[in-house]
Amino acid sequence: MKQTKQPVKTDETQNQRDFALGKTNWILIGVSVFMIILGFLLMTGGKSGSVFNPDIFSTRRITVGPMISLFGFLSMFFSIMWRNKKEDENK
């Protein structure tokens, strides 16, 4: 039988494999955080004062902003749970 030499794992390659989340996960998490921040920014705005401002009932603040934030939180869950098949095959 022919014996093959196994490559010696250095500390650098070992540390790269010990991460719980891969590169794809971090990119998806970044997109999710951006969506959450965008949703909260869409919900803000307008003056606060003693005068009634009907702009607080705009569609952007009541519907669009919260929905984008909700999708951001949902995508955050999926981006953490995402498992890259290519990385699993290498292990």
UniProtKB/TrEMBL annotation:
InterPro entries: DUF3098. Keywords: Membrane, Transmembrane, Transmembrane helix. It holds the Pfam family DUF3098. The chain crosses the membrane at residues 26-44, 64-82. This is DUF3098 domain-containing protein.
